[in-house]
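User: Can you predict the 3D structure for this chain?
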Amino acid sequence: MNLLKGFDYIFYRVYHSYKTKWKDDTPGAYATSLVTLLQCLIGVIIPPFLVTAIGTTKVDLDKKYIIGAFVMLFVLNYIRYFKIINYQKLAEKWNDEEKTKRVRNGIFVVLFIITIVAGAFVLATINFENNN
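Assistant: Here is the predicted structure, written as structure tokens:
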């Protein structure tokens, strides 16, 4: 599974959950925000924390850089998931997923989200302790 397809699946599952289980009016906002947060953590925040935690080089992240990256990724994801590949196209692809595969993939999605967010917090803590 390529990386974008993985994020497409996360978008689909989050959107679907907010739309069907919780009957929310704005499932796309939650799904887009979560995908953007994960992409920002993976591509912008975790790498400098890793460099600082593993090596002797200190990498400072400017808040403007992080916010700018988040906004840029959010806009790109908005275009992708509302103009290019929308929920209906993703639903056509994954609505008929067999139940055991859906449960397994759902567990993988949750574990992926927890791992990325927890990993970012752990690395941020290590980075903070090393700087003080």
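The CA atoms of residues 84 and 132 lie 46 Å apart. The radius of gyration is 17 Å.
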